[in-house]
Write a structure and sequence with these properties.
The structure holds two protein chains of two kinds. By secondary structure, chain A is α+β, with helices and mostly antiparallel strands. Chain A is 50% helix and 16% strand. Chain B has two domains: 31 residues; 104 residues, Umud Fragment, subunit A, CATH 2.10.109. Helices cover 30% and strands 20% of the residues of chain B. In chain B, helix 3 crosses helix 4. Classes of the chains: A alpha+beta, B alpha+beta. At the A-B interface, helix 1, helix 3, helix 4 and helix 5 of A face helix 1, helix 2 and helix 4 of B.
Chain lengths: 226, 192
């Protein structure tokens, strides 16, 4: 397991990552909580192990999120993620109930309750699999753009990505769903990850950010034309 | 590996940072890490409880700890048990039973059975490789076993696999260390 720990260390790297939108800013005020500042490494450049496929994908996803949320000031919608968390929490709840009931009423008497909990747990697992495969797919960000006039419903932007195992081609897909017309438009790009990372594994935002902006603008301008 | 900052109690930002993945996460992602760990534990627990319900035995998988049933079973073999009430216990069958007041299940063969009309039985057991029957193992004054002492009867077995359990019980520190490392790996590494 030393290999696993070392790998975790390399992906942590010398300091930093992009935030997932929820962190505190690096403390500029004098009075901010010192420990929380030192814990969060949101605003430092992202450095990861360039050979670790999942770390690469995570950092590209996080940076794309950061661009959409900070540059275009969209508001993140946690509905999809909350759905997954709820399903998992309910499953664990069934497991805990089974554990406690079996402890209080030793085996033969607890049989019906145990059977019920076990079946419910596996049903919830099935629901979770269906949810992540069909509803969540590979979407990692759902963001809303509030209509400035306040009259129309929000426009929804969705980001999903894929990076195959041991492959270097990263595909990022941006989906725009108009609040008013409920129409859906997509744009995507597939590029090698070598275009965005330097040889030491630092993500070069100057190369990545224009790609995101280009995707975004290609969808946004179509809307204005219509 | 240069440590960042010599002033004050800085958290490490270079070198081995096992919390690296965690520091980039927001509250929901942190909760998901904990949930992920809980789900792995729950899955193992539910599979075990499910086996208990399916087989009707309170311990459906046991490890043979002694050589008293050689040449049939050796120390370190894994046994699969069922405990259905309808199955009669007959002489010659291998049963796993617990002596009242002791935790450790014993795997031996039934050699004598007395049965009443209403289905109550009392039976005597002996290990194939032992010289004498098990009366020395039973409780003080007890000469026969009853249905309620039975944990189950052996339906299938896997040789040698149980040695892992024996080793982990002989060296509990190794077991806890292994579990701690596995738990830390799941909690600290971000799932893709």
């Amino acid at each position: 397991m030393a290999a696993a720990a070392a790998q975790g260390g390399r992906s942590g790297g010398s300091g930093g990552s992009s935030g997932a939108g929820g962190g505190s800013s690096c403390g500029t005020g004098v009075g901010r909580s010192g420990l929380l500042d030192k814990w969060k490494i949101d605003d430092k450049p992202v450095k990861i192990d360039k050979w670790d496929g999942s770390a690469v994908k995570n950092s590209l996803d996080d940076s794309a999120k950061k661009v959409l949320l900070e540059k275009y000031k969209y508001v993140e919608n946690f509905g999809l993620i909350d759905g997954r968390l709820t399903i998992c929490t309910i499953s664990c709840f069934f497991a805990i109930v089974a554990l406690i009931w079996d402890y209080m009423h030793p085996f033969p008497e607890s049989k019906p309750v145990l059977a019920l909990c076990v079946i419910s747990y596996f049903v919830m697992m099935g629901i979770l699999t269906i949810y992540t495969s069909y509803k969540e797919k590979s979407i990692f960000l759902v963001a809303h753009r509030k209509d400035p006039t306040g009259m129309d419903p929000d426009d929804i932007w969705q980001l999903s990505s894929s990076l195959k195992r041991f492959d270097d081609k990263y595909t990022l897909k941006l989906t725009f769903i108009s609040g008013r017309t409920k129409q859906q438009r997509e744009a995507e790009f597939t590029k090698s990850i070598a275009k965005f990372f330097d040889h030491s594994g630092t993500l070069v935002m100057d190369a990545y950010e224009p790609e995101i902006s280009r995707l975004h603008d290609s969808l946004a301008t179509e809307r204005k034309i219509k | 590996m240069v440590r960042a900052g010599a002033v004050g109690a800085h958290l490490p930002t270079s070198g081995l940072d096992i919390f690296g993945d965690l520091r980039k996460m927001n509250k929901r992602q942190l909760y998901y890490q904990v949930l992920n760990f809980a789900m792995i534990v729950s899955s193992a627990l539910m599979i075990w409880k499910g086996l208990i319900v399916l087989t009707g035995s309170e311990s459906p998988i046991v490890v043979v700890l002694s050589g008293s049933m050689e040449p049939a079973f050796h120390r370190g073999d894994l046994l699969f048990l069922t405990n259905f009430r309808e199955d009669p216990i007959r002489a010659g069958e291998i049963v796993v039973f617990k002596v009242e007041g002791r935790d450790i299940p014993i795997v031996h063969r039934v050699i004598k059975v007395h049965e009443k009309d209403n289905g109550d039985i009392k039976f005597l057991t002996k290990g194939d490789n032992n010289e004498v029957d098990d009366r020395g193992l039973y409780k003080e004054g007890q000469n026969w076993l009853e249905k309620k002492d039975v944990v189950g009867r052996a339906r299938g077995f896997l040789p040698y696999v149980g040695m892992v359990t024996i080793i982990m019980n002989d060296y509990p520190k190794f077991k806890y260390a292994l579990l701690a490392v596995m738990g830390a790996y799941v909690l600290l590494k971000r799932e893709s």
